[in-house]
UniProtKB/TrEMBL annotation:
<dbReference type="GO" id="GO:0005737">
    <property type="term" value="C:cytoplasm"/>
</dbReference>
<keyword id="KW-0808">Transferase</keyword>
<dbReference type="GO" id="GO:0008760">
    <property type="term" value="F:UDP-N-acetylglucosamine 1-carboxyvinyltransferase activity"/>
</dbReference>
<dbReference type="InterPro" id="IPR013792">
    <property type="entry name" value="RNA3'P_cycl/enolpyr_Trfase_a/b"/>
</dbReference>
<keyword id="KW-0132">Cell division</keyword>
<dbReference type="GO" id="GO:0051301">
    <property type="term" value="P:cell division"/>
</dbReference>
<comment type="pathway">
    <text>Cell wall biogenesis; peptidoglycan biosynthesis.</text>
</comment>
<keyword id="KW-0131">Cell cycle</keyword>
<dbReference type="GO" id="GO:0019277">
    <property type="term" value="P:UDP-N-acetylgalactosamine biosynthetic process"/>
</dbReference>
<feature type="modified residue" description="2-(S-cysteinyl)pyruvic acid O-phosphothioketal">
    <location>
        <position position="118"/>
    </location>
</feature>
<dbReference type="InterPro" id="IPR005750">
    <property type="entry name" value="UDP_GlcNAc_COvinyl_MurA"/>
</dbReference>
<keyword id="KW-0670">Pyruvate</keyword>
<feature type="binding site">
    <location>
        <position position="328"/>
    </location>
    <ligand>
        <name>UDP-N-acetyl-alpha-D-glucosamine</name>
    </ligand>
</feature>
<feature type="active site" description="Proton donor">
    <location>
        <position position="118"/>
    </location>
</feature>
<dbReference type="GO" id="GO:0008360">
    <property type="term" value="P:regulation of cell shape"/>
</dbReference>
<dbReference type="GO" id="GO:0071555">
    <property type="term" value="P:cell wall organization"/>
</dbReference>
<keyword id="KW-0133">Cell shape</keyword>
Length: 419
């Protein structure tokens, strides 16, 4: 098992380039099922989740070619024959569910083992299944599997009880070849959904409003192959912005889209961090007298839940009282106990964390409880006095490309070790 060792105290400097967004790439890879033509995805972050969904697609008959030199993936779904992917692969990652929409759309059937993923909450799939049912699919859940079948999907008006990203994406992919018009209301508005809509339209779909709260889809008879370059990773960018703040450093972040980062920039600016846009880059200066703030996670365009643990780590180093409220996932403060091992003063009260800033964090042996918690603990280690050893780092590898190398290039004393 790998661990990351961080010796804190170094100021960070220089430049870092942001990778493409895993949360954009995974649904796009799933969408390749919709066409029998080849699809090409450029500049793919070669993360564990990408390899897992590649293997899931292979298990149902797709041919996948990954060029690790150019970060290009070519997906050929022409030979897909099986509608039940390998159960062990599906259990590794919740995003496995993203193949449901494309499978029911193109083949009229799927059977899927209930998947796994980070242990941050229940994250039910009822909204996905209600959407398929509204499109006239028959759904059966039992014995650890979910199965759906339909002769012909029929467009419908679908109102989501909650703006679920996964449900929005799955229903979009199911509806693209349904008969007639589908309208999804109270849809999730994340930039990754807009990117999926762009990819599907390039395949020949007719989608208006992806990335807004109302999405209109006119079903088409077939989709063709296409080439796509995904959007950059706003959460990775936010993580590095917090890194500048927590280490009280100044450096440049390249390949960013400021439009996607508005809620993160707003909160960091409120805390006193100086942020200067520079074309497709941003200069972040955290070497300031920072102030406590209150943060509440919300669906996009609110403050992202995927940045909650990182901002919590930062506020643990800011004098005064801050309150962070988590509204998306009920079990996403597991990192607080690990941060307390490093000297953080955090008290959990229901869905809120009350944080009293301390003069300094101290290095300790901690465990990454989920993907973003692991990244937050690395940030805390960068700011801490002494050495921090972070285990269960495989969580972090699901969402960040060579995170230790990117920090090392900025001047951090960080290394990966294998036991």
């Amino acid at each position: 098992m790998s661990k990351i060792i961080v010796r804190g105290g170094n100021k960070l400097h220089g430049e870092v380039k942001i990778s493409s967004a895993k949360n954009a790439v995974l649904p796009i890879m799933a969408a390749c099922i919709l066409s029998s033509d080849k699809c090409i995805i450029d500049d793919v972050p070669l993360l564990e989740d990408v390899f897992v969904i590649s293997n899931i697609l292979k298990s149902i008959g797709a041919e996948i070619n990954i060029d690790k030199n150019s970060n290009k993936i070519v997906i050929d779904s022409s030979n897909i024959r099986d509608s039940m992917p390998d159960s062990e692969l599906v259990k590794k990652m919740r995003a496995s569910f993203l193949i449901m929409g494309p499978m029911i759309s193109r083949f009229g059937h799927f059977k899927l083992s209930l998947p796994g993923g980070c242990n941050i909450g229940t994250r039910p799939i009822d909204l996905h299944l209600k959407g398929f049912n509204a499109l006239r699919a028959n759904i059966d859940v039992g014995h650890g599997y979910v199965e759906a079948s339909v002769d012909k999907l029929i467009g419908n008006n679908i109102y989501l009880d909650f703006p679920s990203v996964g449900a929005t994406e799955n229903i979009m992919m199911a509806a693209v070849m349904a008969e007639g018009e589908t309208i999804i209301e109270n849809a999730a508005e994340e930039p990754e959904i807009a990117d999926l809509g762009k990819f599907l339209n390039n395949m020949g779909a007719s989608i208006i409003g992806a990335g807004s709260d109302t999405i209109r889809i006119i079903g088409v008879k077939e989709l063709k192959g296409t080439t796509h370059n995904p959007i950059n990773d706003r959460i990775e960018c936010g993580t590095f912005m917090v890194a500048a703040a927590i280490t009280r450093s100044k450096f440049k972040i390249n390949r960013v889209n400021l439009e996607y980062l508005k809620p993160i920039i707003a909160k960091l600016t409120e805390a006193g961090v100086y942020i200067k846009p520079h074309g497709n880059s941003v200069i972040v200066d955290g070497n300031r007298d920072l102030k406590p703030i209150d943060v509440k996670t919300m669906p996009y365009p609110g403050f992202p839940t995927d940045m909650q643990s990182q901002i919590t780590g930062l506020l643990a180093t800011v004098t005064g009282t801050s309150i962070v409220t988590e509204t998306i996932f009920e079990n996403r403060f597991m990192h607080a106990a690990e941060m307390k091992r490093m000297g953080a003063n955090i008290k959990i009260d229901g869905r809120s964390a009350v944080i009293e800033g301390v003069p300094r964090l101290t290095g300790a042996e901690v465990r990454a409880t989920d993907l973003r918690a692991g990244a937050a603990l690395i940030l805390c280690g960068l700011a801490a006095e002494g050495e921090t050893e972070i285990s269960d780092i495989y969580h972090v590898d699901r969402g960040y490309v060579s995170i230790e190398n990117k920090f090392k290039a900025l001047g951090a004393d960080i290394a990966r070790v294998v036991n």
